[in-house]
Specification:
With 189 residues, the protein is mainly α. The chain is built from 9 helices and no strands. It has 2 domains: 21-89, Rna Polymerase Sigma Factor, Chain: A; 106-182, Arc Repressor Mutant, subunit A. It has helices at residues 2-18, 21-43, 46-61, 71-89, 92-96, 110-127, 132-143, 148-155, 159-180. 20% of the residues are buried.
C-alpha cells in the first residue's frame, strides 16, 4: 500500500514537472495586474487582492491547463470565490478597515493628515456601496492610473463606453458620499 501511495505521489510530481513553467509565468505577467485590479475592486483591500491573485495562480498550478478553456476567466472566478469565502469568515467591518498605503505629504500638519485619512476612509466606504463594474472602473482609473482604452479592454467595451461608465460611476459615488455625510466637502469630491 505504501508503494502505491509513493507511485501516486510520483505521478503527481511528474505531471507538475511536465507542465511548462513558462506558460504559467507568461500568463501571470500578462493577466496578473488586471486580475489584481479586478480583485481589488471586488473587495476594496490591496493586500487581500494580492492574496486572491496568489491563491488563484497556486490553484491553477495544480490543474491540467489543457482542460481549462479560458484560464483568465478561470483565474478570475477562483479568485472571486476565494474572496467570497474570506468575506464570509470575517466581519463586514474588517473589509471596510482595509489597508491603504500611507499617502500623506510630509509637509502636512497633523490635522491635515487626519482630515485626509477621514476622506480616504469615507470614499473607501462609499465605494463598497457601488456596483462591482463601477468600483472596477474607478479602481483602474484612479488606483492604477489606466487610460480609458485599457479600462475598455478589461471591461470588454469601447473607450467611449468606459469613459461613460467612469462618468456615471463618479456621479453615483458622489451621491453615495453625500448620502453618507451630507456635510461632506464638495471640494473633496
Amino acid at each position: 500500500m505504501g508503494h502505491a501511495l509513493a507511485n501516486t505521489q510520483y505521478s503527481k510530481t511528474t505531471t507538475h514537472e511536465e507542465r511548462p513553467a513558462d506558460q504559467l509565468d507568461t500568463m501571470y505577467r500578462s493577466t496578473g495586474r488586471q486580475l489584481w485590479a479586478s480583485f481589488y475592486a471586488f473587495c476594496g483591500d490591496a493586500e487581500r487582492a494580492s492574496d486572491a491573485l496568489q491563491e488563484s495562480f497556486l490553484r491553477l498550478q495544480q490543474q491540467d491547463l489543457s482542460a481549462i478553456r479560458n484560464p483568465r476567466s478561470w483565474l478570475r472566478r477562483v479568485g472571486r470565490n476565494w474572496l467570497r469565502d474570506v468575506a464570509r469568515r470575517t466581519k463586514r467591518s474588517a473589509l471596510i478597515d482595509a489597508h491603504l498605503p500611507d499617502c500623506t505629504d510630509p509637509r502636512e500638519n497633523a490635522s491635515q493628515s487626519c482630515e485626509r485619512s477621514e476622506i480616504i476612509e469615507t470614499v473607501r466606504c462609499a465605494l463598497n456601496h457601488l456596483c462591482e463594474p463601477d468600483r472596477l472602473a474607478l479602481s483602474l482609473r484612479y488606483g492604477m492610473k489606466w487610460p480609458s482604452s485599457r479600462i475598455a479592454k478589461t471591461l470588454g467595451t469601447t473607450p467611449q463606453a468606459a469613459d461613460m461608465r467612469l462618468c456615471r460611476a463618479r456621479i453615483r459615488l458622489r451621491e453615495v458620499l453625500l448620502q453618507m455625510q451630507p456635510d461632506f466637502a464638495l471640494s473633496a469630491l
